[in-house]
Amino acid sequence: MRALLLFLGLALSLQAHSQVVGRVLLVGGDAFAVRNGQQVRLAYSSPVEFKDILRTGPASSLQVRFVDEGLLSLRENTEFEIEDYRFGQQQQEGEHAFFRLLKGGFRSVTGLIGRSRNADYRVRTPTATIGIRGTDYAVRECADDCFETPQQRSEADSDASRGQGAPGQKMPNGLYGSVLGLSNGTNQVTLQNNATPQPVTFGINQHFYVANANTAPQQLLQPPTFVAAKPQGKTQSAQGQQGSGGEQASTGSGASGDSRPQTVTDATVVPAPVAVPTPPVLISSTTLPNDTGVLGFWISSSMPTNPNGGGALINQSALSLTSGGVPTGFTVPAGCTGPNNSGNCNGVSVSGLAAPVQSGTGNPDGSSQVIFWGRWNSGTVIDGGQVITLSNSNQAHLMYGPLTPADVIAAKTGSLTLFSGVLGTTPTNNLGEVAVSTSLGSLTVNFTARTAVMAAGSVSFASQNWTLPAASGNIVIQNGGAFFLAQGSGGSCGGTGCSGSAQVRAAGIFLGPVGDHVGASVSGASTSGAQFGAVRVFCPSGC
Q1: How far apart are CA 517 and CA 171, in angstroms?
Q2: Coil, helix or strand for 410?
Q3: Average pLDDT in the chain
Q4: In sequence order, which residues have a C-beta less than 8 Å from that of residue 6 and are 6 or more positions away?
Q5: Vertex 513 angle, CA 508 and 516, to 5°
Q6: Beta strand residue intervals within 335-480, DSSP E
């Protein structure tokens, strides 16, 4: 009996250790997982497992999306341990995400774990334990390797922070961090160590420093520029591509800043030196431009085997918003322009929207104009005369934001690869389930050929598993903006009420001032009548 118990204990331990808790989105340079005493090289789509220790080399970076849709990006020379991670309905011990930073630094965007209770999430570091209540933050543990450089210095000059070129000011060792607040939740970070039995809280746009485990955290008046500096060293690896090279300065931005052909995009989630963000702007009819893009998904009983996601280019007056920019309804007139279901908009009216069950905002390219997204389980949609009552099994996913001017898109050439991270809604299906894992393919827009191609991907629910085919379509520049409708068939779906082949549709609209962000309604349908959908933001950095 004792031998049997020991055997069972060992089997359970190995099973837990092999549990996949996330997937690699992007690799720049050298990245590894230490697993069962072996060092495993990581590449695009590599699994990240329970108890892995993630390592990045010099001039390298790694981006991981966990199954709760949390996003993690490791900077160069970092070691990060997944101490205990549990998520999903099969977990009887409660869902939680416990990590340990051994050295280096990272940026993290909160997933479903940790948005409400601080105890569900923690990161231990040599100087303090970090807790969150739903936020986006960056930290770095300095050990004789941090140098402060002027905020306005170009990224090419930031080699000084790696000991190259003209040296900057060497900073005292310890933990530095900034609360960026671009996620859902209360946008707070807590710090606790031997000197602070009660956690110390820092909010959005606040910055902190902890000298050692026996010293209380202190607030910094200015952001530490070396915390979120972008490690541009080796060519980013995406979808199986790898490369290496010397240090690179980041490219500029602007109307044509990304118009050169690009096959691999720098998509580390640490996109720039930390700066004090512009305070959020309340969205209203006075802050929205006249030209606005709106995207949506809801399940249509009249078209059960067709993906039912689309969008339109509208005037801001078609939106009804609260003082905080949350839609209560909108009207899209018949004959509108945009990536709608049939190519000829038959008119849509949405009304009676109460508080969304999920929502968020983002500022593309540092613009004061905001992209809003949310999903609702109550309200009414009238789509081409069909009345749809929203519910848990038929949620509406909506997004709106400022259109990229048509002349900006028309002037672009070459191609740009965009990625979907955590900005946007979590997919829901016809069973009322929320996705437990979402891996949407990259989106490559060719401005010269005016085509858009979304790579294959996958979405998993508790009762359904979708394998999504690649999708393609043409970019149309019209009525002050640009859009596309990428469609694909030949995917598959398995599980409750979901069988046969699957179609996918990505109805996209270019948003923001320079045209390197796309809002898209991504939806799928199987021949058995099952459906799912979401609205997502795609951008070069993985959003």
Answers
A1: 36
A2: helix
A3: 77
A4: none
A5: 50
A6: 348-351, 358-362, 371-376, 380-383, 386-389, 396-402, 415-424, 428-429, 437-439, 443-446, 451-454, 457-460, 464-468, 471-478
What is the percent of the chain where pLDDT is above 70? 74
**Taking CA 427 as the corner, what is the angle to CA 422 and CA 433, rounded to the nearest 5 degrees?**
130
Q: How far apart are CA 233 and CA 250, in angstroms?
A: 10
Contact 225, 149 (CB under 8 A): yes
> Alpha carbon of 234 to those of 103, 136, 244: distances in Å?
20, 25, 4
The 10s digit of each residue's pLDDT in 501-539 is: 999 999 999 998 888 889 999 999 999 999 999 999 998
pLDDT of 210 > 50? The answer is yes
For 458, the 3-state DSSP assignment is strand
Residue with tokens 């205990």: 84
Q: Return the residue matching tokens 């848990």.
A: 392
- What is the DSSP secondary-structure string of 187-231? -EEEEE-TT-SSPEEEETT-EEEE-STTS--EEESS--TTSS---
Query: How many angstroms separate the CA atoms of 381 and 341, rounded?
Result: 15
Strand 531-539 to strand 428-429: parallel, antiparallel, or no bridges (unpaired)? Answer: antiparallel
b/e 357-384 (16+ beta carbons within 10 angstroms → b): bbbbbbbbbebebbbbbbbbbbbebebe
Q: Which amino acid is at 281?
A: V
Place of tokens 């989630």: 269
DSSP letter string over 473-532?
EEEEEETTEEEEEEEEEEEEEEETT--SEEEEEEEEEEESSSS-EEEEEEEEEETTS-EE
Q: Tokens at residue 304, please?
A: 């059960």
Query: What's the token pair of residue 483?
Result: 């859009």
